[in-house]
Specification:
The chain is mainly alpha-helical and 234 residues long. Helices cover 65% and strands 5% of the residues.
Length: 234
């Protein structure tokens, strides 16, 4: 329906990751059943919404999670941030905390000019990482954003119901979805801080997890096609 996979190799790699991690499994899943559109999707689940659509959504989720929490290092058996400041790796979540801490310190009227200078320099480094994260996010979510630009009238009711049931009336994803401007331009406008970008990542990840949960037939075919066959060849 929405997104098509272009590279089966990367999908197989994703499935290997999927088999040994629960991070891509929807937590506290919700049913989307109020809108007319979801009724149509459920009828066409597994036909129009295919296993490849589900695989691509999972790839988008994996990329988004790595921006938020870092990539998993088998050697270290832990996640490592993708953004570097002064030789130290940061996740987007780390950058949010650092961004807030710098602002708190800058509000201290007793700071010397030298102390302020160091904080401004640190903030500039955070802003560079923020720009890098935004670029990586747009590349990761390009399939979703491109299709959303064309099918916004179809996706909007689902995002609206998701936000309502998640009790997120101020959701950044919801605000982005209702824009009448170009979706990519609007994205850059509303994620002006590490905190807003992190929230957008969380919202998109949860929405895609919810969408997948509401397409059980396509999800089952996804597992049959890749988990039970391709993953065995790794």
């Amino acid at each position: 329906m929405v997104i098509r996979s272009k590279n089966n190799f990367f999908i197989v790699v994703l499935l290997y990751y999927f088999l040994f991690s629960d991070i891509l499994v929807a937590l506290d899943p919700i049913e989307l059943n109020n809108s007319i559109l979801i009724g149509i999707i459920k009828k066409l689940d597994g036909i129009v919404v295919t296993s490849d659509d589900i695989a691509q959504m999972m790839l988008v989720r994996k990329g988004t999670i790595e921006i938020l929490l870092g990539y998993y290092s088998k050697q270290n058996k832990s996640r490592i941030g993708r953004y570097e400041i002064d030789g130290k790796n940061f996740t987007l979540v780390d950058l949010v905390r650092l961004e807030m801490r710098i602002q708190e310190l800058l509000n201290d009227a007793s700071l010397t000019q030298q102390q302020k200078k160091k904080l401004y320099q640190k903030r500039e480094k955070v802003q560079k990482c923020h720009s890098q994260a935004k670029l990586e996010f747009t590349k990761t979510t390009e399939p979703f954003i491109e299709q959303a630009n064309h099918f916004k009238s179809l996706i909007l009711p689902l995002i609206g119901e998701w936000a309502q049931k998640r009790e997120r009336p101020e959701s950044i994803l919801l605000k982005w979805s209702v824009t009448h401007e170009n979706v990519l331009e609007e994205f850059y406008r509303i994620v002006g801080s590490c905190e807003s970008l992190a929230q957008f990542c969380r919202d998109l990840d949860d929405f895609l997890a919810t969408f997948v949960h509401n397409c059980p037939k396509a999800y089952t075919k996804f597992k049959e096609k890749y988990v039970e066959s391709d993953a065995q060849s790794l």
